[in-house]
Each structure stands twice: as C-alpha cells, then as structure tokens.
Amino acid sequence: MKNAMTHLAAIAALLLAGPALAQGKAAPSWGPGADDAAFTRMLAASFKDKGIAKVDRLTQDETQAFCSDPEAAASPAAAEKRQRIEAANMATVKWPSDGKWLGDWKEGEKIAQSGRGNTWTDKPGEPNGGNCYNCHQISPAEISYGTIGPSLLQYGALRGGDEETMKAAWAKIYNAKSLNACSNMPRAGHMGILAEAQIKHLMALLFDPASPVNAKTGPAK
C-alpha cells in the first residue's frame, strides 16, 4: 500500500510540475521531455472536446513553445529570437477600429471583476470576463486581488494619456506577448477572449480620470 501511495504521489507531483520541469531530450513543442511516449499518451488521454473547450487548446504556437523552456527563453543567445517573437505578436494587434481608445470605466470594472468564460459550460458567443483582479490590484475599494502582476493604482494619473502610452496599454491588453514574449498575461484580444469594446472599457478603467483607479490618494481633509 505504501509503495502504491508513493507512486500516486509521484504522478501527482509530475502533473502539477508540468512539462517545463521534465528533463530529457531536445525540446519539442511542449518543452524538454515532451517527446516522451508516456507523456504523450497521458496528454492525449487526459483531455477531450467538450462544448466550446476543444483539445486544440493543447497545441502550442511558436511563442508558447519558446517560453515553455524557461532556461532557453532567458538565455542571452535567445535574445534575437525573443525580439522576433515579440515583433510577430505585435503584428497581430488590431487597433481600435474607430480610433477611440476609451469606453466606459464602469463596464471595465465589471469585466475586470469577472473571471467567467471559455469553459465547456459556456455557449459560443457569450462574452468573457477579463479576470484582471486575479493578478492585479485595480480599484482601491477592492481588497481581494492577486499580485502576479503589478498594482494598477494611479495607472492613468501617473502615465498621462498621450498616443504612445495608449498604444502601449492597448497592445498589452490585446496581446501581452507583443511587449514581453514570455509575459504571464493572457493574450486577451489575440486569443479572442475579449472583444474590442471590452478592451476599450478596460482602457477606460485604467485611464479615465473618473475611474477609481485614478482617484487621488492621501489623508482625508
């Protein structure tokens, strides 16, 4: 029984660690060790199409494959490839069709709060949430937020609203890999998670002077 439990614990640890920690042969699309036959069989057997969630989500593009091997991605020798990948992602960014950057910050707050979407229980065409609070501090009134990403308090107040700043923020939301090839941030626009109007609402949350993000801080008078 003890040996069985140890074996199960080892399998669980491997699944939690993911392919990036595996050691072995030259890296294929899922990183070092992903060409192992047992891993390939496990991956194929563990997932199936269900609703809108399809197994093609397991297929990595060049950006994902590059960043699945963190040691190689961080290597000075990979700097040129990193720049090429960032340029390729930047080329996918679709700018506002009407030239307007900002929507309604109140709608942006709703999108930032919602983590709903893209599961097998969702229907095609249903709007997704941005799940932004999972990684960022945004409104000072919200006490529950993640810290994987930086705090966004005073985002617009500190940066202003010139064209270059707006473009950088839009590109970051639309396709974060355009500015950092191995960013942890989802490619919300590029992957079809958020629509143009939703990105505008999030931009307003960041830049609108009326947004709580840009509220003046300090002791009350």
How confident is the prediction overall: mean pLDDT? 85
Strand elements, count: 0
Q: Which regions have little confidence, pLDDT < 50, spanning 5+ residues?
A: 1-28
CATH superfamily annotation of the largest domain:
Cytochrome c-like domain
- The CATH architecture of the largest domain can be named as Orthogonal Bundle
CATH class of the largest domain: Mainly Alpha
SS-derived structural category = mainly alpha
The oligomeric status of these chains comes to single chain
Distance between the termini: 67 Å
Strand fraction: under 5%
| SSE string | HHHHHHHHH
Give the % helix.
25-40%
What is the molecular shape? globular
Structurally, the number of domains stands at 2
- Largest pleated sheet: none
Distinctive features:
221 residues; mainly alpha; Cytochrome Bc1 Complex, Chain D, domain 2
Secondary-structure map:
Elements: H1 2-17, H2 37-46, H3 62-67, H4 70-74, H5 79-90, H6 105-113, H7 155-159, H8 163-174, H9 196-207
Helix pairs in contact: 6-9
